[in-house]
């Protein structure tokens, strides 16, 4: 049985800007433990007066990288923790974390597939950890990512997703941009709905393992829609972010 | 119940692990109200109030309540008929 979760002081070793609102932080951990794709870390900030703020951030990196994890963090304008990361944290800074956390919203290659992943905005982060792990799995189960973003420039991991899909006939990425679309856009241009979910199910294949992550209302709509289309509820795992900011 | 504020028990997995000493979201429970058997991770979570409330994803009744004060933590699991913690 693993030891109880303990807080530890990590060191920021790399920072990568993903989009205008989203940045990935690589944390080096003195007590690293292998994680499972879909898990998260809790991050705790402590002010000089002792006030503490704590948030959970999904791990974006695959478990195969030892000693460190990438957390991809969206900046919430009125948030307590994410603005600190975006505006203040620099390489070399120390950050208090505990993890990996969660045993429910996880996927590992032994679970098999097919995988049907549905993401809204930064909900793509834990699903990306799954796709990154799947990329090096043998065999690789078929996978579909249905991914909703507001605008083209808000698509997190855009180039990597395109490269993964181009190199792998077993991976299908279906995208929708709900606010604006660039010229020549061939994806969808509306919120995730029944036809999109039907297409995703058809592309994934029978009895998919479903992981849905994003704002609560998107997760509700997608989960209910998939169940209405015949996916067994027990195959649908959800991670809700709360209200859209 | 404020639906847009609803999260999953996964959101409080760290707190649950801290209180119980185990990873709890994969733990199986039975809802004392409707009898649904499922993993704790299927519970719906409300975390914006003075405590944490976890509700059954089927009947929406309260399964677990956790309230922390500066000196103690109150855990009400009367909504769970049982919990099965895997130890091996």
How are the SSEs ordered, and which strands pair?
The complex is a heterodimer of chains A (245) and B (88).
Chain A: E1 8-17, E2 22-28, E3 40-46, E4 52-58, E5 68-74, H1 82-87, E6 94-101, E7 115-120, H2 124-135, E8 143-149, H3 158-166, E9 171-177, H4 194-204, E10 209-214, H5 216-228, E11 236-240
Parallel strand pairs in A: 7-8, 7-10, 8-9, 10-11
Antiparallel strand pairs in A: 1-2, 1-6, 2-5, 3-4, 3-6
Chain B: E1 7-8, H1 13-20, E2 28-31, E3 37-39, E4 44-46, E5 52-55, E6 62-68, E7 73-76, E8 80-84
Antiparallel strand pairs in B: 1-4, 2-3, 2-8, 4-5, 5-6, 6-7
Notes on the structure:
The complex is a heterodimer of chains A (245) and B (88). Chain A is an alpha/beta fold. Chain A has 5 helices and 11 strands; from the N terminus they run βββββαββαβαβαβαβ. Chain A folds into 2 domains: 94 residues, Elongation Factor Tu (Ef-tu), domain 3; 133 residues, Rossmann fold (3-Layer(aba) Sandwich). In chain A, the strands form 2 sheets. In chain A, strands 4-3-6-1-2-5 form a 6-stranded antiparallel sheet. A 5-stranded parallel sheet of chain A has the order 9-8-7-10-11, with helices on both faces. Chain A is globular and about 55 Å long. The termini of chain A are far apart. Chain B contains 1 helix and 8 strands; from the N terminus they run E-H-E-E-E-E-E-E-E. In chain B, strands 1-4-5-6-7 form a 5-stranded antiparallel sheet, with no helix packed on it.
């Amino acid at each position: 049985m693993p030891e109880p979760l303990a807080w530890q002081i990590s060191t920021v070793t790399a920072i990568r800007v993903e989009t205008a609102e989203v940045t990935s932080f690589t944390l080096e951990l003195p007590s690293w433990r292998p994680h499972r794709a879909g898990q998260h870390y809790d991050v705790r900030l402590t002010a000089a007066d002792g006030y503490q703020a704590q948030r959970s951030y999904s791990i974006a990196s695959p478990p195969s990288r030892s000693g460190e994890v990438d957390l991809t963090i969206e900046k919430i304008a009125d948030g307590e923790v994410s603005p600190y990361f975006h505006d203040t944290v620099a390489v070399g800074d120390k950050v208090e974390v505990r993890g990996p956390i969660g045993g429910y919203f996880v996927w590992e290659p032994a679970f098999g597939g097919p995988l049907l992943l549905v993401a809204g905005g930064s909900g793509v982060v834990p699903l990306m950890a799954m796709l990154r792990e799947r990329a090096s799995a043998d065999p690789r189960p078929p996978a579909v990512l249905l991914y909703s973003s507001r605008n083209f420039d808000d698509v997190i991991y855009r180039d990597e997703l395109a490269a993964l899909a181009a190199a792998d006939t077993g991976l299908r990425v279906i995208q929708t941009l709900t606010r604006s679309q660039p010229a020549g856009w061939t994806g969808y241009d509306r919120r995730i709905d029944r036809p999109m979910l039907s297409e995703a199910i058809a592309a994934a294949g029978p009895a998919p393992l479903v992981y849905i992550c994003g704002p609560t209302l998107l997760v509700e709509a997608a989960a209910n829609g998939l169940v209405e289309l015949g996916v067994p509820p027990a195959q649908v795992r959800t991670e809700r972010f709360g209200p859209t900011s | 119940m404020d639906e847009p504020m609803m999260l999953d028990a996964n959101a409080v997995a760290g707190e649950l692990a801290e209180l119980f000493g185990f990873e709890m979201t994969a733990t199986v429970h039975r809802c004392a109200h409707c009898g649904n058997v499922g993993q704790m991770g299927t519970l719906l979570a409300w975390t914006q109030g003075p405590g944490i409330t976890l509700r059954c994803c089927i009947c929406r009744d309260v399964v677990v309540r956790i309230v922390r004060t500066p000196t103690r933590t109150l855990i009400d699991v009367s909504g769970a008929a049982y919990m099965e913690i895997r130890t091996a």
